Structure formats: structure tokens, C-alpha cells
Amino acid sequence: MVALAGVLVLAGAIAVSVAAVRGSSSPKRHVVSTTTAPTTTTTAPGPTWRVAWGSAMAWGYGTAQDTTVRDLATVAVGGSEIRIRLSNLFGNAPLEVGAVTVAPSDGGPNLDAAALQTVTFSGAPGVTIPVGQVVTSDPVALPVTDEETLAISVYASSKDLVTLHYCCAAVRAYSAANNAGNLTDSPTGKGFVIADGYERWVDAVDVLESTGEGSIVVLGDSITDGFNSTTNWVNVLQQRIDTLPASEQRAVVNEGITANALTSVVHTDSAVGGGPSGLSRLDMDVFDQPGVSEMVMFLGTNDLWFGASANEVIEGYEQAIAAAHAAGIRIVAVTLLPRASNPREPWTGADQAQLEQVDNWIRTSGAFDGVIDLAPVVADVYNGACSPNILFPPYDSGDHLHPNPAGDTAMGNAIEGAVLELPALPIVPPLVQVTPTATCAAAAGAPAPAPPSTTTTSTPTTTSTSSTTSTTS
Q1: CA distance 471 to 157
Q2: 80 within 8 A of 143, measured Cβ to Cβ
Q3: How many CB atoms lie within 10 A of CB 105?
Q4: What sign for the dihedral angle of Cα 71, 77, 82, 86?
Q5: How far is 320 from 44, CA to CA, in rounded Å?
Q6: Cα 162 from chain centroid (whole Å)
Q7: Of the candidates 137, 195, 197, the residue with the CA atom closest to the CA atom of residue 165
Q8: What average pLDDT values come out for the chain (473 residues) when binned by 10 residues?
Q9: Euclidean distance between the first and final Cα of the chain, in Å?
């Protein structure tokens, strides 16, 4: 965690409003029986596969051949077994995987050799993945705990364009040089000569749970990915959820892609790392994942910056809502955050008007099953200020677009459990002392934060190294 020197840790952030929208239902009739009720036996639900970690593949970059990569994956919740999904979504040839292993991480590229497991695919130690496809492994008898980090090693014997996810400056993967061979059994970092933020090929980990609830997948951009921060709001929310009893926990799976857009109605950065549009990746990153019962939509600001209109973004939301409901999944929206110009990304008054139109529709249309209103949570409406169209400076990473760790913590803390059909959640320690400005309409009526007695003692998990470079969200 990055601490802010000399800052008091006091609760006082705006708590997010919950606008849960549910279909009407008829009340159940109470029938009085005059006969003896039959004896029934309740069967406990069996173990269930649920996705517990994700890394949305964004583009193809670099060529690999006869080499090994070691990706790090932190599962949100625990389970008795795991499965691993590999992707060749952007490859230019079939990906020949010669070996895969998994073990608990022992820090950096090192792993727990005593727990090292071979991963198989239909009983074989390797698999060939066609271009544009994914494959899921056989179950691996490796028990995992909440927020445990796994080291997943993949040996690619063939030559292929590498399918990957990139964000930020955190080290999330280790790679050997081409023609270094199969290092999947190596317990140390010997031979892994590259350490970077490129997660290669591994795009999901499932866990087998005997309890718990359905997974929540967040479809987002760099604000969800954690750009310009050392954490992200999804991590903070997951820490709060993991304080619940196991039977009430849910995995929140981060499928954010830096520079991602909801639609493809205007030219975006999709071909140079921004990933497929949110609408086009609904199946791959949400609906095809096991055990998903809910998704959170946090896309749209990049569409507006690239030139889409508010109405075009809203039409994209309507498509996503229809698709989610057809798949039997609840869909909750997050309001777009306030932003301002920086040297690389101008933001005009006309852009702001479009953003406000989108946020007003999210809040008032009733189209989503729930709304998480994070825009006022990070707005400049604290400590006497009242500028709701820009980020609160102590929450601003410096580019006037991406929250810093204090902002991410405020966002993750502000989400009420009810909007995600969760019980009340404690908060993690805030990083900045804030008091909503009483005379500011944008801050008026904010629910009181959780009392100190319900605050957890954990701190936000660090998942990426801070960067000062600005980029599209």
C-alpha cells in the first residue's frame, strides 16, 4: 500500500447511493394445510465451479517460440480445486502448449516447489489452441485460499504472436528468452530474464467452491485496471467482501482493459492495446465464465473521448443490458467519473455535457438492475470545495482522469453491499481525511460512512507500481 505522509486516516467519504431496480413479482400466497405435510429431505448444494480471477486479453504483441512464461494470478476467493483458462485470442498461428504447471507463489518468480502441480488438458500434458480460441484445463487438486497468488507457468513450443494483457508498471509476469525451452518445473526465477506487466496467455482461473455465491465480473477500462495507481477499486471491494463468512463471499473478477471502449461506433485504440470493445467481449469475458451471476458495467468515458455521442453510448448500454438479461445475469452500472483536460487528452465543455447526459441516464432510466454512483465519491466536493465536474485533488493521480490509491480506496469503500446483493460490508482504512462540503448540492445528503468499529484492519492490496504517464482510460 502507498501511504500518504502526514494524512489522518479518518472516515468521511461519500457513501455511494444504491438504486436497485428489480422486476415486480406477485406476493406468495400462504396456504394453510389441514393434512400432515410430507417429510422432505434437504440436499446440500454440491461444489460449484466459479471464476475467481481474470485478465482480459487485449492484443497481440511480440513473438514467442520455445519459451516459458510465468504469470501471477491472485484468486479472489478460495476453493478445493482450480482450473486454468489459456487464450490464443490474438495469435497468428495455432498455439502449441507443451507444458503447464501451477503452484502457490513464493514471491517474485519463485514458487512453492513442494506444492507444484502439473496441469493437464483432457488428460494430456499439452494442448494446441487454435487462433482466436481459449481452452480450459482439467481440474487441478490444489486447494487455494482467499487472495492467494498463484504462479502459473506455460511452455509454448511453437512460434506465435503473443496474446496478452498489459496495464501499468507492476510486475505481473516473468518470461524466458526465446529458445530457452521448458522451465515450467523451475522453482526459482533462474532463466526468467524478463519481468514486466504483460500477462501472457493465462486469462482466467476458476475455483471449485463448496459454499459462497456467484461471481461478479467487472467490465471496465483503465480506471478499473488500476492505471496510475498502486491498487484498484475492485481489489478494495474484494478485501471488504473477504471479511464475510465463506458462505456469503463472492469473487469480484477484474476484466478491465486500459483504453477500452464500450462500443466500436468510432475509431478507438482497439488495435494497439485497447482491446476489443466491451460489447464484443461480453461472451468471452463474462457470459462464458463459469458461475457468474452478475456483471458490473464501467465503460463509456473512452467512447466519449474518441468522439462517440452520449446517445451512442446509451445505445451500447441497452445492448449490454439485453445481452446480460438473455444470459440470466444481473447487470449493474457505474457512473462515469469526473475528468478534466491533461496535456495528452483534452476534455471540452461539450465532452462534459455528453458525460453528464450519460450519467443522468444511468441514474434515472431504471434500465440497469442496479446503479453504483461513484462519480460524486471522487468529485471535488470535500473540505469546502464544490467542483463536481473534476476529481478531488487528493484523489487525482495527476492526469485528472485516473484516481490514485486514495481515490481507488474511496471508491471501493463507497459501494454498499446491497446493490450487489451482498450483506453490509466493513470498510478498509481510508487514506485521506475528507468531509463532504455541507453547502455543496453534489455532496448534500450523502450517507454517513461506516463507523470506526466496523473498519477492517487490512490495507488495500498493491497490484501495480505507480506510473506518472497519462493515457486514455
Answers
A1: 35
A2: yes
A3: 19
A4: negative
A5: 34
A6: 22
A7: 197
A8: 26 37 30 32 70 97 97 97 98 98 97 98 98 98 98 97 88 96 97 95 97 95 95 97 95 97 94 94 98 98 97 98 98 97 94 97 98 96 95 96 96 96 96 93 59 43 35 61
A9: 22
Inter-CA distances, 387 with 106, 337, 349, 398, 413, Å: 46, 13, 14, 17, 22
For the record, the C-alpha cell of 460 comes out as: 488495500
Amino acid at 130: P
Domain boundaries, the chain: 59-204, 206-454
Q: Rounded to an integer, what distance in angstroms lies between the CA atom of residue 74 and that of residue 55? A: 11
Question: How is residue 127 written as a grid cell?
Answer: 494442448
Is the Cβ–Cβ distance between 159 and 63 less than 8 Å?
A: yes
Q: Are strands 252-256 and 215-220 parallel, antiparallel or unpaired?
A: parallel
Tell me which amino acid residue 26 is.
Answer: S
Query: Of the candidates 142, 25, 40, which has an alpha carbon nearest to the alpha carbon of residue 81?
Result: 142
Looking at CATH, the fold of the domain delimited by 206-454 is given as Rossmann fold (3.40.50)
In single-letter form, the type of residue at position 136 comes to T
> Grid coordinates standing for 274?
485497447
Looking at residue 262, its amino acid is: L
Residue 231's nearest CA partner among 256, 214, 195 is 256
Scanning the structure block, which residue is given the C-alpha cell 464544490?
A: 386
CA distance 466 to 146: 25
